[in-house]
Amino acid sequence: MKIDFLDETIERVTAEIDRRLAPFEATLAALDTIPGIDRVGAISIVAETGGDMSRFPSAEHLCSWAAICPGQNESAGKRHSGKTRQGNRYLRGTLVQAGLAASRSNGTALQARYHRLKRHRGHKKAVIAVGHHILAIAYYIMRDGRTYHELGADYFDKRHAERAVRRHVRQLEALGFQVTIEKAA
Questions:
Q1: Is 128 within 8 Å of 83 (Cβ atoms)?
Q2: Where are the domains of the chain?
């Protein structure tokens, strides 16, 4: 008896949410193409940001508004804590969850970004950084009405090929190998 009442209430609220999200259906579908974002995450991003990106001049402004960017605490040339501010807890929770999911999505640029950052900064900071990157991607998707284009797991290595070569040579030399590099034919 009580469960039937709750089921009816849930159905009624879900129908109202779907009715209000009807104008954003194309945006939700485009946000759903980002690795780590599902329909619920897309709904949360649209609901918390309002879906109108004309309020924000750039993706950096949106990330700053959401308080998902590193803090800047510097005095006399010394950097202190880079802890993020407390912002919208619902949006932050969604982005952290999306960052965790993206870090586990195989063969994506977001997973590669997570692994690159995790080496130096640790798991938690890497997840926040991936969440920050996801929000920046969401900004451009909502502003321009495009879908996400996957760059691939090797995008950063291709973009900075010399840096990748130096890193791999250092790793091999640390293991005791002597490395000579020649371009392939």
A1: no
A2: 2-73+81-153, 155-185
